[in-house]
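In keeping with the milestone schedule agreed at the kick-off meeting, the structural modelling team has produced records for the first pair of proteins. Each record is given below as a sequence line and a structure-token line. The laboratory manager (R.T.) confirmed that both were archived under the project's standard naming scheme.
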Amino acid sequence: MKLRADDITWREIDGDLVILDLRSSTYLTANASGTVLMRQLAEERTAQQLVQSLVDAFGIPERRAQQDVQAFLDELAGRGLLESSGHERHRDPVAASGGR
């Protein structure tokens, strides 16, 4: 997944992020962890790569980073700001094997 390529602009101001969606004329703000994630989302990234970027940047436990990443991605996706490559879908191994 990555940030939608068109009609979005963002700027870092004093460690915080301001994101402007030109399609809907709305803006969001993000803290330092959101800023790290937005930089990563300028290119195609997996959720695990995003988690690792927070672990590396802030030294937080992986579980906490996973929760933060999921919340951030949910917010961006809910606002239509993400593109997905389709590789991010998590498959249920039991369902994929026919339930055996």
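The second protein of the pair:
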Amino acid sequence: MIGWPGGLQVWLAAGATDMRRGFDGLAALVQERLGADPFSGQVFVFRGRKGDRIKLLWWDGDGLCLLAKRLESGHFVWPQASDGAVHLTAAQLSMLLEGIDWRRPRHTARPRHSA
């Protein structure tokens, strides 16, 4: 897995995106739909119509990186909004990439208070 830099800003592009888009098409969506700079070092995440595919666009300082993932079963959890963007933390991005519902993470055990 890629080691993301500290303080990483992650944005989910609400709604469905045509997964045939590449570097230039996704960078144009970042500028037009999200009003952001695709060369800012932030990560922009896009989901396909069926919900089983995502693409991430990220400027690492040397060039644009385009990462893609397809789930063999299930779907990526996505906001209900049809436009705009939702901010995620790097930890939430990791959960999203694993197919975990990043909106309601649960601890497997409650912390114990020592007396």
